[in-house]
């Protein structure tokens, strides 16, 4: 997938700080994981993957964070897709939001996706599954991009032009249908859907908060204007009354 930009900032020269360091850390850990598997010292990385038994049975809550930085060392497509999507859709979001808010959103989506994955696996008794990858956070970015830039044109699979808002809907529908199909594809569609759900909640709550603050600010300004107007009217009445008095 790809989207056409309407701004004069090229991908080759624009890597905001948050996106850049996420790319560096993910790629570096992938290479270390790849080498560790080849030499048989990958036990440490197994502890960092997301396991329902570890999280709920042994309170390994750090796995809700660390699993996002691991990708399947048996192939390269997993990390290529996630990092390419992070770079493609994350740059605009970080530039418009700022690094702090962008990272807050990214990790909230990733952790939320992990919570959904653990809950769903525990619900059906899959205690020994192990989930890795940043896809939950990435799907959160897809949702945010569709909401923030709904009319941007995305080239789905580099071939089919589609507006970003419809692309986000399509990816969400695929994740939803795949998560309820029950098919064991080796992909955590529940995590994908969870990342989008948590991302949507985050954005809507922030927008509502901002709207509430704006409304309160406007109400305060209106109150001040009304107060000033009343004071002015009282002053004018007194001044008019003084002018009508006889002066000895």
Give the averaged pLDDT, no decimals.
82
Question: How is the CATH topology named?
Answer: Rhomboid-like fold
- Work out the number of β strands: 3
Strand content: under 5%
Trace the largest sheet across and list its strands: 1-2-3
What's the CATH architecture? Up-down Bundle
Rg, Å, rounded: 26 Å
Q: What is the molecular shape? A: elongated
Indicate the percent of residues in helices: 55-70%
CATH structural class: Mainly Alpha
What is the distance, rounded to the nearest whole angstrom, between the alpha carbons of the first and last residues? 91 Å
The chain-level structural class is mainly alpha
Order of helices and strands: EHHHHHHHEEHH
Number of helices: 9
Please give the domain count. 1
What can be said about the biggest beta sheet? 3 strands, antiparallel
Could you give me the name of the CATH homologous superfamily? Rhomboid-like
Which stretches of 5+ consecutive residues score pLDDT under 50?
Answer: 2-13
């Amino acid at each position: 997938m790809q989207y056409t930009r309407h701004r004069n900032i090229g991908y080759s020269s624009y890597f905001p700080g948050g996106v850049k360091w996420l790319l560096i850390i993910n790629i570096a850990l992938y290479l270390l994981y790849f080498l560790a598997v080849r030499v048989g010292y990958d036990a440490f990385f197994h502890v960092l993957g997301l396991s329902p038994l570890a999280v709920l049975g042994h309170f390994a809550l750090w796995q809700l964070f660390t699993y996002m930085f691991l990708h399947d060392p048996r192939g390269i497509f997993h990390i290529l897709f996630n990092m390419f999507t992070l770079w493609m859709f994350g740059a605009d979001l970080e530039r418009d939001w700022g690094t702090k808010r962008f990272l807050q959103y990214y990790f909230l989506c990733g952790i939320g996706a992990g919570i959904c994955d653990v809950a769903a696996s525990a619900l059906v008794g899959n205690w020994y599954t192990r989930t890795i990858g940043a896809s939950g956070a990435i799907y959160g970015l897809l949702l945010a991009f569709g909401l923030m830039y709904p009319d941007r044109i995305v080239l789905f699979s580099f071939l089919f032009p589609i507006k970003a808002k419809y692309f986000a809907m399509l990816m969400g529908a695929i994740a939803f249908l795949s998560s309820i199909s029950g098919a064991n594809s080796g992909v955590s569609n529940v995590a994908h859907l969870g990342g989008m759900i948590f991302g949507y909640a985050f954005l809507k709550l922030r927008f509502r908060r901002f709207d509430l603050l704006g409304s309160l600010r406007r109400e305060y300004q209106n109150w001040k204007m009304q107060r000033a107007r009343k004071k002015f009217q009282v002053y004018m009445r007194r001044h008019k009354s003084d002018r009508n008095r006889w002066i000895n």
